[in-house]
Design a protein that fits this description.
Helix 2 (79-100) packs across helix 13 (438-449) and helix 2 packs across helix 15. The chain starts with a strand and ends in a 17-residue tail after the last helix. The strands form four sheets. Strands 6, 7, 8, 14, 15, 16, 17, 18, 19 and 20 form a ten-stranded mixed beta sheet that branches. Strands 1, 2, 10, 11, 12, 13, 21 and 22 form an eight-stranded mixed beta sheet that branches. It has a two-stranded antiparallel ribbon with strand order 3-4. The protein has one domain: FAD/NAD(P)-binding domain (3-Layer(bba) Sandwich), CATH 3.50.50. A hairpin with a 2-residue loop joins strand 16 (302-308) and strand 17 (311-321). The chain is globular, with a radius of gyration of 23 Å. With 506 residues, the chain is α+β, with helices and mostly antiparallel strands. The chain has helices at 17-29, 79-100, 123-137, 151-157, 159-162, 184-197, 247-254, 277-281, 334-337, 344-353, 355-366, 369-377, 438-449, 451-464, 476-489; strands at residues 3-13, 35-38, 69-70, 76-77, 111-113, 116-121, 146-148, 171-176, 180-182, 201-203, 206-213, 219-225, 230-241, 262-274, 286-288, 302-308, 311-321, 388-392, 396-403, 407-411, 415-419, 425-430. The structure holds flavin-adenine dinucleotide. Flavin-adenine dinucleotide (FAD) binds next to helix 1 and strand 11.
């Protein structure tokens, strides 16, 4: 092994959708900055961002029931749904900017329109869905949502789900046509192609093994060039740790105070994929149900039409499970290795608190294919085992930290940026709502890590994301305008008018 020393302005660790997004933004805001990327695998978007490793839902709270909760007085709290929707509008605007500026092409390779639906059964759940529908349809962001508890209407919307269904309890659904299926793998690869074209040095098969502060306040990364079995040392003024599940161990190596008392809880996932084209053709939509009692929010079952490699597919899941790995390609020692003197109490507290979740996940891992088919049959009553195969999805590493509300060792289900106080290094942890919110998350990271540049960058940020700094929920006119513009730029025009604006059929 030999040593090489190199300097740059920015180092991005990991070639997933988060580094891709941050790199693409920085290239627009500070084109003269020298950016380097290190990715341990041999291509971009191979871990969680890969199309087969996530559900590809453009999370806009159009169908995910866990983004709206029922308050003690029986009314519906829409705060989170509005936030998630606004975050997705931000992503749509940035992607549209990239397409309109010819920085990436053929948006249909990574985003397709697909109705988003929520489906529930039982009197109580139907009443909840109706109330949710009423609360959301008053908000412009959700205006075209439809509700039905009429089985005949549902047969039109979801024929595969209604076929051979015994109607022993009330059933209802909501539907909104402006939902999307996003191929985050294709998007990530497109963004990395674009970055390479603009001179960003993307080093595949390069694993970052250590991160240290240098005497002048920069950061040095120790990189293992896996192809040549060589060690390299690179320094940069700013480092983004976008290693997905691999971010936590790297953050711990920085030794920054913000990295203490944080742990990670890995959750694995499986999907069922349909191999019968006749069945695939009978369904058109992303249909989200309700999570089972005791199940974590990331295991809400859904039956999804997906567009992968220009082909329509049908996936069901995800089935959550437990694996000690932090990445799909990780090691069985990842979880153990992440327990440090600085987080051992946090981790032990979480272990004690989350026994029920751990038990649930282990039970899920031990389920047979037939047991999984039974869960699928709650959606497709006549589903046949031979039409479905199991595919392993990506790993999520949920953040464990000490919070005021939850106490020591509280499991978090969101996405979290951990940043050094001086803004010189930041890491992205957690996985939900995930890739859909990449643009908003990276805008917030820019504000925290580059406060000295934000004022001068603002006009360009507003060109990339016209709603920057504005609440679209409170500005319905602006929302309609932006929605129509992004719909056209991304080729998302669906039949019929959206939110009162005339839209062309594609
Ligand atoms: C089952 C499942 C379903 C999901 N569904 C959705 C969904 O429907 N919609 C949605 O918006 N989000 C979804 N997500 C979340 C989404 O996939 C993630 O939030 C997103 O892909 C994370 O991107 P990332 O760039 O942070 O990580 P990744 O895509 O995992 O990329 C991290 C990269 O860093 C590399 N790396 C790690 N360690 C090192 C190292 N030491 N040196 C060099 N390289 C390293 C890895 O090889 C990898 O390529 C889902 C996730 C899962 C697991």
């Amino acid at each position: 092994m030999s040593n090489v020393q190199k300097k740059s302005d920015v180092i991005l660790i990991g070639a997933g959708v988060m580094s891709a997004t941050l790199g693409s933004m920085l290239k627009e805001l500070a084109p003269e900055w020298d950016i380097k990327v290190f990715e341990k695998l041999d291509n971009a978007g191979e871990e969680s961002s890969n199309e087969w490793n996530n559900a590809g839902t453009g999370h806009a709270a159009l169908c995910e029931l866990n983004y709206t909760t029922e308050k003690a007085d029986g009314s519906i709290d829409t705060t989170k749904a509005v936030r998630v929707n606004e975050q997705f509008q931000v992503s749509r605007q940035f992607w549209s900017y990239l397409v309109k500026s010819n920085l990436i092409e053929n948006p249909q390779d990574f985003i397709m329109p697909i109705p988003h639906m929520s489906l529930v059964q039982g009197e109580e759940n139907v009443a909840f869905l109706q109330k949710r529908f009423e609360a959301l349809s008053n908000i412009p962001l959700f205006q075209d949502m439809e509700f039905s508890d009429d089985p005949e209407k549902l047969k039109e919307w979801i024929p595969l789900i209604m076929e051979d269904r015994t109607q022993d309890q009330p059933i209802a659904a909501t539907k909104i046509d402006s939902g999307t299926d996003v191929n985050f793998g294709a998007l990530t690869r497109k963004l990395f192609d674009h970055l390479e074209e603009t001179g960003v040095e993307v080093n595949y098969k390069h694993s970052v093994e250590d991160i240290k502060r240098t005497s002048d306040g920069s950061w040095e990364v120790k990189v293992h060039d896996l192809a040549n079995d060589k060690l390299e040392f690179h320094t940069a003024k700013f480092i983004f740790i976008g290693g997905g599940g691999g971010s936590l161990p790297l953050l711990q190596k920085t030794g920054i105070p913000e990295s203490k008392n944080i742990g990670g809880f890995p959750v694995s996932g499986l999907f069922m994929v349909c191999n019968n084209p006749d069945v695939v053709e009978k369904h058109h939509g992303k249909v989200y149900g309700k999570a089972k009692v005791g199940a974590p929010p990331m295991s809400v079952p859904h039956l999804d039409t997906r567009f992968i490699d220009n082909k329509k597919s049908l996936l069901f899941g995800p089935y959550a499970g437990f694996s000690p790995k932090f990445l799909k390609t990780g090691s069985n020692f990842d979880l153990l290795g992440s327990v440090k003197p600085s987080n051992v109490l946090t981790m032990l507290s979480a272990g004690a608190k989350e026994l029920a979740l751990t038990k649930y996940l282990i039970q899920q891992v031990l389920s047979s294919k037939e047991q999984r088919m039974e869960e699928l049959r709650e959606f497709i009553p006549n589903a046949k085992s031979e039409d479905w195969d199991i595919v392993v999805a990506g790993q999520r590493v949920q953040v464990i930290k000490d919070t005021e509300a939850g106490g020591k060792g509280t499991l978090q289900f969101g996405t979290e940026v951990v940043c050094a106080q001086d803004g010189s290094i930041a890491a992205l942890l957690g996985a939900s709502p995930g890739a859909s919110t990449a643009v908003q998350v990276m805008l917030e990271l820019l504000q925290r890590c580059f406060p000295q540049h934000i004022k001068e960058w603002e006009p360009k940020i507003k060109e990339m994301v016209p709603s920057y700094g504005v609440s679209l929920a409170e500005n319905p006119e602006m929302f309609r305008e932006i929605h129509t513009e992004t719909e056209e730029a991304l080729g998302l025009t669906v039949n019929g008018p959206i939110n009162g604006a005339e839209s062309k059929s594609s």
